[in-house]
Amino acid sequence: MKISLNWLKDYIDIDLSLEDLARTLTMLGLEVEEIRVVGLELPQKSDRSEFKITGLGWPSDYFVVAQIDEVMPHPDADRLTLCRLNDGGADLIVLTGAPNLFPYKGIGPLVKPIKVAYAREGSVLYDGHKPGYELTKLKRAKIRGVESFSMVCSEKELGISDEHEGIIILDSDAPTGMPLAQYMGDAVYEVSILPNMIRDASMVGVARELSAVTGKALRVPQRSVKSNGPNIAGKAAIEIRDPQLNPRFVLGLIEAVTPRESPYWVQRRLRMAGMRPINAIVDATNYVMLETGQPLHAFDYDVLKERANGERPTIITRPAVEGETITTLDEVRRNLDPNDILVTDTAGPLSLAGVMGGLESEIRPETRNILLEGASWNFINVRKTTSRMHLNSEAGYRFARGVHPALASWAVELCLQRMYEWGGGQIYEGLVDKYPLPPQDPQVEITVADVKRKLGITIPATEIADILRRLEFKCQVDGDRVVAQTPPIRLDIGSGEVGKADVIEEIARIYSYNAIPETDLGDDLPPQGNNLALDHEEKIKDILVGLGLQEVITYRLTSIERENRLALDRNELNPQSYVKLRNPSAPERAVMRRSLLASVLEVLEKNVHLSERLAFFEIGPIFVPIKGQQLPNEPRQLALAMTGKRHNSAWDVVEKGQLDFFDLKGVLSGLLESLHLLNVSFEPASHPAMHPGKCAQIFVNGNSLGYLGELHPQVKERYDFLSACVVLAEIDLDKLVSLTPLWFESAPVPLFPPVLEDIALIVDANIPAERVETLIRQTGGKMLSAVHLFDVYSGEKIGTGKKSLAYSMTYQPQDHTMTAAEATALRNKIVRRLEREVGAQLRDE
Amino acid sequence: MPANVGGTTGNKCPSLFVGTGLFFGGFMEEKPKIISELEETRDKALASLSQVNDEEALQNWRRDYLGKASQVMLTFASLGQQPKDMRALLGQTANQVKQALEVALEEHTQRVKQTALLHKVQSEQVDVTLPGRAPVQGGLHPQTQVMRRIFAIFAEMGFQVYRTPDVESDLYNFELLNIPAYHPARDMWDTFHVEGEGVVLRTHTSPGQIHAMRQNAPKPVRVILPGMCYRYEQISARSEIQFNQVEVIAVGKNITFGDMKGTLNGFVRRLFNADVRTRLRPSYFPFTEPSAEMDVECFVCAGKGCSVCKSSGWLEILGCGMIHPAVLENGGYDPRVFSGFAAGMGPERISMLLHKIEDIRYFWGNDVRFLGQF
Ligand SMILES: [Zn+2]
Questions:
Q1: Half-sphere exposure for A327 (CA within 13 Å, toward CB)
Q2: B313-336: burial string, b at 16+ Cβ within 10 Å, e else
Q3: How confident is the model at residue B234, as a pLDDT?
């Protein structure tokens, strides 16, 4: 909402600086987003500027009210005129091309001089001919042989609005020679209105808030002009079919209004509020809406009479019927449903209640007689209508948030007066007012203790009452108790406990949040416990980072097509198995992911040209719909993917090794070891995205944790990867966390020296290395503390179909120093076992 | 070491004797030939030592002048055959010569070693400006880092982490939080709806309030609720469809607006610095009342106004308020007895402020050139 300071001052005296006013409004909950200065002196650039301040000041020496006494033709240019102008001092000749002066061209000295905004030589103002707002300085120049050094200004040039069709023609009572800033200097506050403060989407509302904190009196505008016409009785009838939808409907009547231009100050205020001036009739309805917060609607009374065959028109409000339509004044034909409320007459729909008028009964240029509606509507219905139709109107905006029905008659009366003042005519005596459902304005009882319990401060009852009275609550004080009657201007105060909270918020707001002292939580600390799932998860991240992997966090929204890239058989993923959005923002983000791996692989693909080594992991949920369950399961997963070089190259070393299956296996083994998981095994397996010969399933104590492997070559073709192999793994994180022990025992450092031995064995190529190692470990028993495979060889030297496995073994006796004989015996035992079980032969060098 | 025949003085100050024939002249008519030969050899040896400059030459010198076949050693060996009156003087002289040669050799050996070391070190010099070899390094996503910081700060104040699901019912995401259908506040969230009845992607972590309260009522609650939230937006540098939020709630019998200020100020002081200035502005959330926004003084410009704070000098850091009575009741607490506060913040916003990140899309874009900086 754009608040003109000038306009606001109609309702309250303000002696705050521009910035202090912004600060005060912000601290009331009316957050100021920008101050646009329109003529007033721009605040000095200070060390602390809390607000965005834009706009233009009009220094008194340069910008004044002037009068044009004669508009003369330019000798050489049809589109220019020469104005004989007086700026309060000398007579001057000013050159202009303003089309709105053409009617006065060449008619001789004007009987009624034209009042204009005049900028003297050297003025800094906006260039009206350039797009946007670009400052320019007025300099002496010759245009078509006539010297020009000053100008009469358009609104755009002065920064009032972007209007640049013609120059400003001020109201005729503007005093010639008065500095322009003094006459109409202003500032516009761009204020965001909170949903529960819609009462402040009005000038009077904002003034009321200011009055509450500054103590300055609020001047509520009231109709002051007496009716000059007959009584309205018999001129129109109202029939409200459902008071829940339409608690109040008020009509006023004014005839013979001239739809001329409103006074300039009205037009300026409307434009600064972001509205387009039309004529006195339309402008009055908009002006009063901005003033009071009550949207109004003007009907052409003659059209209504015609529709009623010359009889008294009857306004009927009712829900729309399924299939009914209305063409609104934006010329859109709208299909209605029973949630929409209609204002109709006996001939049919007139307007979409609270949202937009109908085209048929719209005010036309020739309209003179106005039936003026002020009504209130059920905010839920209006909201349904505006959101279904994506219709944003000033009226809809206010009604969808709730306008108090008490405002209707006040606003209608004010508007009749404005129409009369700006367009003349005859105001009918009285209103037609149907008010079947006045709201129950809650009475809230609040004690000093209630306030203390919520805010932590003791405010005496009299002060509580004082604060509330400033917001127009009617208060009775009884000891520590205040009974506050909600004023009939707002609908945001509830009753009971909620009402108390609502009122306490008002007290805190006016008392000032920043005046409430901060305290430390003194309440009982809840029972504390551990959080293993999170702790383990964070530990896993740290381990993986230590193992050289970069964590990524991806979108949890994806598409089935994207995830299908990773499936060898594209039909494998069933659309039914996804959590799908009803309203996706883009087709590529239409479902919640089922595969964390697919997301991580996308990241790998995206970065593959950016780094010679990539190793990523992510931990996060996937989303699995469960039949018969409203919400999906959200199991957490760990996905890893790596590609590129094993190590980083340096200036003296070119790394040739490429990351492969065993690098990833090393990472996973390292992870499981760091988590102190025992009985880990990797078994050949198959996975739809993985190379059938390079894929393993990971088990811990017989529980499957997931898979690792090389990306299937066929799947890889769907990605933009370099030739290097891509390895990936998918781990059930919940399982991993559940298997991870909370504690582990450490082993003492041995007192006796270890004995190290190497053996090389030749076995058939198809014997898995893990089997050989398991046999070594089993045979070595407790004495064997470590086995490390340090070489695998196959080649002619050892015969085809064979491979050599070389292990280094560590024997670690716990209670004595091992003798050579003992070591040999153990070694022989191991070798014999391997010979027997897997046909191994000792390889001698 | 041979026996110290020369006595203490000679041992300590051999150079006194070197090349001073005068000394002997004082006592004798004439110096025996064998003694002057010894002295000549000594002078020759000392002179040649300065030419020796490597390990091998040192060995040769030792062999020539101090070896078994050297003149000095031969002199000792032949002492028995010398005339009796000569023996003492000759022995003393030979000893002095030997001492002088040994001391000179030791000194020179050290010198040669030093020189050799110097040469070696000089020849080994590297260009220290060449880059180091980059180890393989992993890293945490910036948002994990900032989340951990937030968790740690609240943990210090007794708040534990409580996680709840991303896909929520309309009931938990809205209704129980005092946001009935068609409530004006529904405009505050552009919601992703899931196929099926009344299911949404959570638009905030606030549904966790209800979960946490319902699980703990009537015991007091002090938790933070972190998690990914979703809003229907067009993705741009300023807005994302997915974002983290951390919500803070405390419920108990004696919790006030002042406590909320104290706790949240404690948080921002720990996050930024002890002197940071804050302010609370009235705001509106359907699930809190009174509601507020907390601003911290812009730490980039210290409140002077800059592009980060959009020249306001203040940075919006979190929304907060006293939990609405209806929400307390929905959580299982009697609002006449219990009270509490809730606050919510955006960790991405905090990161953007702390690291001057201008584009929110960087977070889930996972470009290594971005991630590598954290
Ligand atoms: Zn700043």
A1: 5
A2: bbbbbbbbbbbbbbbbbbbebebe
A3: 87
Chain B nearest CA to A290, separation (Å)? 20
pLDDT at B13: 41
- B193 and A581 within 8 Å at the Cβ level: the answer is yes
**pLDDT score of A119:** 95
Cβ contacts of B233 within 8 Å, gap of 6 or more: A585, B190, B239, B240, B241
Domains of chain A, earliest start first: 2-56+187-214 (3.30.56.10), 59-184 (2.40.50.140), 237-434 (3.50.40.10), 443-514 (3.30.56.10), 532-739 (3.30.930.10), 755-842 (3.30.70.380)
The per-residue pLDDT for A578 is 93
A28–B contact, CB cutoff 8 A: yes
H/E element holding B343? strand B339-345
Instruction: Report helix angle A496-511 to A448-455, nearest 10.
Output: 70
Q: Which residue of A has its CA nearest to B327?
A: A498
Q: What is the CA radius of gyration of chain B?
A: 45
A chain contacts of residue B266, beta-carbon cutoff 8 Å: 520
DSSP single-letter state for residue A675: T
Q: Are A401 and B137 a contacting pair at CB < 8 A? A: no
* Residue in A closest to B196 by C-alpha: A630
pLDDT one-digit tens code per residue, B285-310: 999 999 999 999 888 888 777 877 87
Residues 234-263 of B with CB under 8 A from A: 234-235, 241-242, 250, 252-259, 261-263
Question: Residue A569: pLDDT band by 50, 70, 90 thresholds?
Answer: low
Residue B332 at interface with chain A, using a CB cutoff of 8 Å: no
Q: Which residues of B touch A525 (CB under 8 A)?
A: 158, 220, 222
Residue B319 near residue B342, CB atoms below 8 Å: no
- What's A382's DSSP letter? H
Pick the residue from chain B with its C-alpha nearest to A642.
B138
Positive or negative, the CA dihedral A210, A212, A214, A220 is positive
Q: pLDDT at position A251, please?
A: 98
Measuring CA to CA, how many Å separate A570 from each of A563, A574, A625, A719, A730?
9, 9, 20, 15, 19
Q: Which of B145, B153, B149 is nearest to B266 (CA)?
A: B153
Task: Give Rg (Cα) of chain A.
Answer: 42
Residues whose beta carbons lie less than 5 angstroms from ion ligand 1: B 298, 300-301, 306, 308-309
Buried b (16+ CB within 10 A) or exposed e, A306-326: ebbeeeebebbbbbbeeebeb
Q: Tell if the CB–CB gap between A631 and B165 is shorter than 8 Å.
A: yes
Q: How far is the CA of A53 from the centre of ligand 1 (A)?
A: 15
Q: Which CATH number does the domain B142-371 belong to among 3.40.50.2000, 1.10.1040.10, 3.40.190.80, 3.30.930.10? A: 3.30.930.10
Per-residue pLDDT of A335-381, as tens digits, reads 999 999 999 999 999 999 999 999 988 888 899 999 999 999 999 99
CA–centroid distance, B4 to ligand 1, in Å, is: 86
- Predicted confidence at residue B30, as pLDDT, reads 66
Dihedral of alpha carbons B196, B197, B203, B206, sign: negative
Residue A50 confidence (pLDDT): 77
Task: Tell me the two tokens of residue B143.
Answer: 């948002």
Contact A8, A207 (CB under 8 A): yes
Contact A453 B339 (CB under 8 A): yes
Decide if B370 touches A, using CB distance below 8 A.
no
Token pair 């009504």 in the structure block, residue: A375
pLDDT at B224 > cutoff 90: yes
What is the pLDDT, as a whole number, of residue B263? 97
- φ/ψ of A756, rounded to 5, equals -105, 135
ipTM: 0.89
Whole-model pTM? 0.87
